[in-house]
């Protein structure tokens, strides 16, 4: 599949950002940098994981929909 470089770069940047954001949140939760109770840690982990997964899917869908130069 031929893909425009600008679309590929934006999609990959979005996916990399979501993975880095998820890893940063995991680091914060694993090392207890914020003084949170167990329920708050679970909530932040779930929200961070779902947000990261959503950004990855958005990046993939963006690359599929915008990446093909033949169709408008």
Explained architecture:
The protein has 72 residues and is mainly α. Helix content is 79%, strand content 0%. It is elongated, with a radius of gyration of 16 Å.
Question: What secondary-structure arrangement, pairings included, does this model have?
Answer:
Blueprint: H1 5-31, H2 38-67
Helix pairs in contact: 1-2
Question: What's a quick, concise take on this entry?
Answer:
By secondary structure, the chain is mostly helical. It is 79% helix and 0% strand.
Overall body shape: elongated
| Tally of DSSP β-strands | 0
Q: In sequence order, what are the helices and strands, one letter per element?
A: HH
Number of discrete helical segments? 2
Q: What average pLDDT do the residues reach?
A: 84
Q: Could you describe the largest sheet, including whether it forms a barrel?
A: none
Integer-rounded radius of gyration: 16 Å
- Low-confidence spans: pLDDT under 50, at least 5 residues? none
The percentage of residues in β strands lies in under 5%
Helix content: over 70%
SS-based structural class?
Answer: mainly alpha
Q: In angstroms, what separates the terminal alpha carbons?
A: 15 Å
List keywords for this structure.
72 residues, mainly alpha, elongated
């Amino acid at each position: 599949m031929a893909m425009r470089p600008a679309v590929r770069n934006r999609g990959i940047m979005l996916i990399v950002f979501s993975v880095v954001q998820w890893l940063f949140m995991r680091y914060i939760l694993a090392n207890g940098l914020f003084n949170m109770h167990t329920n708050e840690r679970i909530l932040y982990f779930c929200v961070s994981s779902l947000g990261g997964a959503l950004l990855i899917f958005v990046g993939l869908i963006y690359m599929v929909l915008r990446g093909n130069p033949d169709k408008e």
